[in-house]
């Protein structure tokens, strides 16, 4: 079994790669930076995991198209990479103090270009390479804003990504395909993007390793998750439209 994981050089992506690799899955480490990607490959290799680097930059479709020429077949496509906001040299990647009123249209456009259009190009390009019973998994978030966390650009891009996944799932179903596409919401995870520490917020924030194991378990189980949005606690979100309309 072979899995391509975008953004697998660090954080949740690397943790997914490690968890799947320990189960015998061959890992393709998708990353923008070759040096960081190769470093992740070396770390995985020291753990006995078969891994190799594939250059993937969601903001550069040429890298996606080049990668499809290098890969003959995939069993798993895990869309983990994304950006929390448009890059600002003087601001953290995910500025917790940024309010909805602070977002510009360019912020939304740049975030959507990577998280939505980039992920769509991944799915569209690698779909012909996906095994008949292959799975596409999007790492995503709930779309309903809350007082603690509601970054407009990021949540908007993920909402669009979720709708895309459900629409692809419907096409798989209608055409009788055995392929699956679904989303996994790992919940609060400590990463360099948010500056949180494990156990923060009364234990709500989990480690990347915990998130990776949770996601790998869902990816490798024998259930048909096509079209589902699955929370970290295993709950399947069935009130998605209610979340949109309130």
Structure description:
This protein has 246 residues and is of the alpha/beta class. The protein has a single domain, classed as 3-Layer(aba) Sandwich (Rossmann fold), CATH 3.40.50.720. The chain is 42% helix and 17% strand. It contains eight helices and seven strands, in the order βαβαβαβαβαβααβα. It has a seven-stranded parallel β-sheet with strand order 3-2-1-4-5-6-7, sandwiched between helices. Helix 3 runs parallel beside helix 4 (105-126). The model is unreliable at 198-203 and 242-246 (pLDDT under 50).
List strands and helices in order, with pairings.
Layout (H helix, E strand, L loop, with lengths): L1 E5 L4 H12 L3 E6 L2 H13 L4 E5 L5 H10 L3 E6 L25 H22 L3 E10 L12 H23 L5 E6 L14 H4 L4 H13 L8 E3 L8 H6 L1
Parallel strand pairs: 1-2, 1-4, 2-3, 4-5, 5-6, 6-7
Helix pairs in contact: 1-7, 3-4, 4-5
């Amino acid at each position: 079994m072979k899995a391509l994981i975008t953004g697998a050089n660090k954080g949740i992506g690397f943790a997914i790669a490690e968890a799947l690799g320990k189960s015998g899955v061959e890992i393709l480490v998708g990353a923008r930076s070759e040096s960081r990607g190769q470093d992740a490959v070396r770390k995985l290799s020291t753990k006995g995991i078969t891994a190799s680097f594939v250059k993937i930059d969601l903001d550069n479709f040429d890298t996606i198209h080049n990668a499809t020429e290098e890969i003959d077949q995939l069993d798993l496509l895990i869309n983990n990479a994304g950006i929390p906001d448009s890059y600002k040299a003087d601001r953290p990647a995910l500025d917790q103090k940024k309010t909805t009123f602070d977002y510009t249209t360019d912020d939304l456009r740049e975030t959507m270009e990577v998280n939505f259009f980039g992920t769509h190009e991944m799915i569209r390009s690698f779909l012909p390479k996906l095994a008949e019973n292959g799975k596409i998994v999007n790492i995503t978030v709930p779309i309903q804003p809350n007082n603690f966390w509601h970054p407009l650009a990021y949540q908007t891009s993920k909402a669009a990504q979720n709708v895309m996944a459900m629409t692809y799932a419907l096409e798989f179903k209608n055409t009788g395909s055995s392929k699956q596409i679904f989303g996994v919401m790992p919940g609060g995870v400590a990463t360099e993007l948010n500056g949180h520490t494990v156990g923060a917020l009364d234990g709500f924030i989990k480690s990347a390793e915990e998130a990776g194991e949770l996601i790998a378990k869902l990816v490798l189980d024998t259930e048909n998750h096509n079209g589902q949005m699955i929370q970290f606690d295993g709950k399947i979100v069935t009130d998605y439209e209610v979340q949109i309309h309130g």
